[in-house]
Amino acid sequence: MFGKMMNSFYYGKSGKGDYRKEDLPKNRRQLFFEMLRVRLSGLIRLNLMYAVAWIPVIILVFLTIMAAVGLLDGVVTESEGLLAEGEGLWDAFAKTEMQDSLLAFMDQINNLILTGLLFLVPCLFITGPFTAGIAYITRNWARDEHAFIWSDFKDTVKSNWKQALLTSLITGIMPVIVYIGYRTYGEMAVQSGFLYTILQVFIVVVGVIWSFMTIYIYPLMVTYKLSYRQLIRNAALLAIGRLPQSLLMRLLSLLPLAVAVAVVYFTGSLEIVIFVTVLLYLLFFFAFNRFVYASYANGVFDKYINARIEGVQVNRGLSTEEDEDEDEEEEQEA
């Protein structure tokens, strides 16, 4: 009896569907906004739990930005000192000592970026299992299915942690590879020719494609039983095959950061903007981003994968012809 009671407390009781048959959304746009309305408070609670894994990343990014601002202030102060001597702006920059200062500043910025990217690897590494857990819950919520925030999260992390850690490790290493490769091939292209420019572009394309693949990897991971090789292959095919949509999804996920940069540019309120942006991510944006990915991935999987698997239900959460026929029969019986 006590065991059943604890089981009930831990896993809860399955709830009823959010809709009657006649109320089911007719398309995925309706499904997305209705599920967002229904699950809004749940997404906030889920985000508070998921954001814990991203705190090291947030701290690292904040410290890197502050260090870059400090370096920039040093260059600005030096340039103002030269201007104070009565010289024009271009005359100041033409001075040998100013050029040396700018070159030193660029070297410091490059070293700062590389150091930040190296420290980013372990910070992103720990987020993998957490992302797998949230991918499962948002996948279910996005198609109007039940999921318990804590217990389903925990069970999904437990069953997918190996693939999730490997994915987050690659995600952490990829920016380092792209940055080093881009700078190295860029310098070699100046000295040795066009071939290295092609390699420079290629390394950037690889990084961008991997960024698109992460949209699909975690939903694939928690939905299908795949080896890691199959997981990567399917994610790559979907990312490349639906390149415009993948780009749109990635741009949408970056929209809050783009708005923050724009606000800083027009207002100069760096500290306030950072505080507000971090607060919004800690409260909502992490989970909302995964919910958007899940809603999109559900439609993609139905079209390209589930429709080819015998017996697999498609269009979950959407109204179907069978639902409408059942409604008509019930009305006639009444």
Helix-strand blueprint:
Layout: H1 2-11, H2 28-50, H3 55-83, H4 89-94, H5 96-125, H6 128-142, H7 149-192, H8 194-223, H9 228-241, H10 243-267, H11 270-304, H12 321-333
Element order, helices and strands?
HHHHHHHHHHHH
Helical content stands at over 70%
What would you call the shape? globular
Structural class call reads mainly alpha
The tally of helices reads 12
Amino-to-carboxy terminus distance: 42 Å
- Sketch the major β-sheet: none
* Poorly predicted spans: 1-18
Strand content: under 5%
The whole-number mean of residue pLDDT values reads 85
What does this structure look like?
This protein is an all-alpha fold and 334 residues long. It has helices at 2-11, 28-50, 55-83, 89-94, 96-125, 128-142, 149-192, 194-223, 228-241, 243-267, 270-304, 321-333. The longest helix is centred in the middle third of the chain and has 44 residues, at 149-192. It starts with a helix and ends with a helix. Mean pLDDT is 85; it is low at 1-18.
